[in-house]
Design a protein that fits this description.
426 residues; alpha+beta; 5-stranded mixed beta barrel; 5-stranded antiparallel sheet; 20 strands; rod-shaped
Length: 426
């Protein structure tokens, strides 16, 4: 054994190595900042941490262990202390260059971990060769924050290979586009108008919501979110929500969705619920100059025309009604075929408030009314004197009638004023 050891030592002493040569060795020690290899030479080989990897966060004691076999490249035969300086990362980079060249020529899909996230993109390592993926080529959609990719293994192809300038550009976007087209094709082969599909809210806008159906996005327009009125989609949906919707239409690659399912259609039994003559309750939804729209239930509105609000003349609906006010009314017309105009001019208040104007009180006081009976007018005067609120249908001025009814009016006025004074005294 000692003779063999001596022969081995003799062989090692006459063995020569040169700079740039690739040597095979076995790890005999691992320190915090270097790896020591037995390379079968009269001196051990040293791989410093900086020559092992470009990753400054790597821990040598975790990455390499005593007894591991390693291949390295000679940088210096003698560092002045009788040691051989080796590099592992440069040899790996050379291999990586060759690997990238093959991948570039064959458009092969590579997988590598993201080692660095920059403002302009991502850096990945392919066998110790740094590949840069610009932010514009990371995804098929705009991504403001790339930090989520830190440490992840991602797939990409080499879109630019220039070893002289050490320029290696990766492209992940084209893979994403290809996968989306494949998924899109599969999706459109199996979906049809009327199908119920599930998806995830991808984006919320003022006019609707885009839902990812797994291969294509569907648009849920604000008008299709409910049988009732939706003021703002952002108050109903948020990104990430899971939604089950009905496919309303397919136009090329555009999918229109709806949440108006037939089993929840409020018009199914509207004809019986809102038959002519029925007294119904609703809330004033909105008002125009010609009338007020009253919501009877989500999805069913009726027009209370300005001429139907009261038996008295009403200039504007807002003079007597307010938004959100609950009213009771009677259906006077129903058109189930045209749902947008259903129950048009359909309501008349069943117990209208009869507003007595100042002119009406003045006329009533002096007996100038369609009701000219002395007892009615005198009773009104007594009530007014006591501060009561009078609610009645008032005053139609008929100028020709004043001439023929003059005597009667004077009598009524005199009697009425007398009663009024008596009431005040009481």
């Amino acid at each position: 054994m000692s003779e063999l050891s001596f022969e081995q030592m003799l062989e090692d002493s006459v063995k020569t190595i040169r700079n740039g040569e690739i040597v095979q060795g076995k790890v005999i020690d691992v320190k915090e900042d270097e790896i020591i290899l037995n390379i079968g030479y009269k001196a051990d080989g040293i791989i410093t941490k900086s020559e092992y990897s470009n990753d400054p966060s790597i821990v040598l004691t975790d990455a390499v262990h005593v007894g591991d076999s390693m291949e390295a490249k000679v940088l210096k035969v003698n560092d002045g202390e009788g040691q051989v300086i080796l590099t592992y990362k440069r040899l790996a980079a050379e291999k990586g260059n060759k690997r990238l060249e093959e991948a570039f020529e064959n458009q092969e899909v590579l997988t590598a971990p993201v080692t660095q996230v920059l403002d302009g993109g991502l850096c990945v390592n392919v066998e110790e060769t740094r590949v840069f993926i610009p932010a514009s080529l990371v995804s098929n959609v705009y991504e403001k924050d790339l930090t989520k990719y830190a440490g992840q293994e991602i797939e990409f192809v080499i879109s630019e290979y220039n070893p002289k300038r050490r320029r290696y550009i990766g492209d992940r976007k084209q893979l994403m586009v290809a996968k989306k087209l494949e998924a899109q094709k599969e999706l459109f082969e199996k979906i049809h108008v009327g199908d119920v599909v599930e998806g995830t809210v991808k984006n919320v806008t003022d006019f609707g919501v885009f839902i990812d159906l797994g291969g294509a996005d569907g648009l849920l327009h604000i008008s299709e979110m409910s049988w009732g009125h939706v003021e703002n989609p952002k108050k109903v949906f948020k990104v990430g929500d899971h939604v089950k919707a009905l496919i309303k239409d397919i136009d090329g690659t555009k999918i229109a969705l709806s949440l108006k399912f037939d089993d929840t259609n409020p018009w199914k039994d509207a004809e019986s619920k809102y038959a002519v003559g029925n007294v119904v309750t609703g809330k004033v939804a909105r008002m125009t100059d010609f009338g007020a729209f009253v919501e009877l239930e989500p999805g069913v509105e009726a027009l209370l025309h300005v001429s139907q609000i009261s038996k008295e003349h009403v200039d504007k609906p807002s003079d007597v009604l307010s938004g959100g006010q609950e009213i009771e009314a009677k259906v006077v017309d129903f058109n189930g075929e045209d749902k947008k105009k259903a129950v048009m001019t359909a309501l008349r208040t069943s117990a209208p408030s009869i507003i007595v104007s100042g002119m009406g009180l003045f006329a009533a006081t002096f007996g100038v009314a369609i009701y000219s009976d002395i007892d009615i007018i005198s009773s009104m005067c007594m009530l007014m004197a006591r501060g009561a609120v009078v609610s009645m249908l008032c005053v139609i001025f008929i100028l020709p009638a004043l001439l023929t009814l003059c005597d009667k009016l004077i009598c009524a006025t005199t009697f009425g004023m007398k009663k009024c004074r008596e009431a005040v005294k009481q």
